[in-house]
Amino acid sequence: MVTSGGLRRAVQLLAGLVLYAASIAMLVHASLGNMPWDVLSQGLGRRLGWSLGTATIVVSVAVLACWIPLRQRPGVGTVANVLVIGLLVDPFLRLLGLLPELGLVARVALTAGGVLLNAVATACYIGTRLGPGPRDGLMTGLVARTGWSVRTVRTSIEVLVVLVGWVLGGTVGLGTLAYALAIGPLVHVLLPRFTVPSGARLAPTRAPREGVADDDGADRTQDQVADDAVVQGRPRR
Fold first, then answer.
1. Pairwise CA distance, residues 232 & 200, whole Å
2. Is residue 208 part of a domain?
C-alpha cells in the first residue's frame, strides 16, 4: 500500500526531474552558456554525433561507474535521474525549436528562467530524500574519501568538466557563469520548502573536523547545498 508520504515523494521526484530536463533545454536553446555538466554532454554529443539526451545518459552512466570504487549506493532517485532527464531533454529541445528565432533579450530571459527552474527542480528531487543524482553522488563520495571540502571537490570537478566540454565543442558563456553563481543560493532558499518531512532524524555523513568550524561559517552557498544533498538525499552506506 502506498502511503500519502510515499506518493508525494514519487510525484515530487518525477516533477523535479521533468523540470530539470526542461531547464537544461532552456539554457541549451538560449545558447548563452550551458550548465557545467551539460557543456561536457553537448561537446561529447557534437563530437560523436549523438543527441544531447543520449550524451547525457552516457555521461551519467559513466559517472555512476565511478561510484563503485567510492562505495556509493544509488537510490531510486539516482536511477530515475539518469533515465527521466536523459530521455526528456531531446523532446524539450524539439519543442523549443518550434519557437521563432529569439533575440538577445529573449535569450537572456530564457537563460534566467532556466537557472531559476533548475533551482526549483533541484530542490524538488533532493527534497524527496530518495537518492542524489549521479554527479552529486560522485562529489559527496570524493569528499568522504579525500577529506577535502565540498567547495574544493565540487569546484574542481565542474572546472574540469567545463574545460573538457569546451574543448569538445560545448557552449560556455555568461549562462554558465550565472548558473554557477546563482544555483547555490537559490537552492538553499528553496530546499526547505520542498523537503519531505521524515520521521527519523538524518545525521550528516561528514562530521566537522575537531576544532575546525564549518568551511564557510554562516555563508551557505553552493557547497552547503551539496552538504544538504548528502544529509537528505544520499542512501546510507
1. 11
2. no
